[in-house]
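step: validate -> pass
step: tokenize input -> pass
step: predict -> running
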Amino acid sequence: MEKKLVIKMVKNCFKQYYSEVDSLPISSNDLEALAERIIQIKAEQPTVELYEAVNDTVYEFLTG
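step: predict -> pass
step: emit ->
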């Protein structure tokens, strides 16, 4: 799976939550970790849609 695509999707998901903020409230290390987690979820559960894995992972990051 293309890691750049996952990172772009994560950034877009954050923009939905923080639409009025110029920069995202996440470090590059956290962004990399989220991308790795999403790729791992997709590998473990191939039937899960990518957008669903991204949205769920970002939501968990923000709330937990």
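step: describe -> The chain has three helices and no strands.
step: cleanup -> pass
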